[in-house]
Design goal:
- The protein has 105 residues and is mostly helical.
- The protein starts with a helix and ends with a helix.
- α1 crosses α2 (33-57).
- The protein has four helices and no strands.
Length: 105
């Protein structure tokens, strides 16, 4: 958990610097598709970090984290999630998609 927290914080800072530099140097209409999608992901992650940071800084609020993540599974910023969790999300999504496909046919 500590490695994920430290590495995620470093990634957050690097992404924040990247998006600040991007918006400083380019006008809105000059963005490429990659820059638009990456900046959208970073902005969403920064907005998700606000309530997540409260959980991290309030003493003993970490004990409520599993309950919060169970109730709101997409509440954690993407830079604090392991790669295996991303893979399992994709597999779960494909299973749900296959079930819906079978139901419709």
């Amino acid at each position: 958990m500590k490695y994920t927290l430290v590495q995620g914080s470093k990634d957050l800072w690097a992404d924040f610097k990247w998006i600040r530099l991007l918006h400083k140097n380019k006008a809105r209409f000059e963005f490429t598709g990659y820059e638009l999608t990456r900046s959208k992901r970073i902005i969403i992650d920064l907005l998700k970090f606000i309530p997540y940071s409260v959980i991290l800084f309030v003493p003993f609020a970490e004990l409520a984290l599993p309950v919060i993540l169970y109730l709101y599974p997409n509440a954690a910023p993407s830079f604090y999630i392991f790669d295996t969790a991303f893979d399992s999300r994709g597999v779960e999504f494909e299973k749900k998609q296959d079930e819906a496909h079978k139901l419709l046919l």
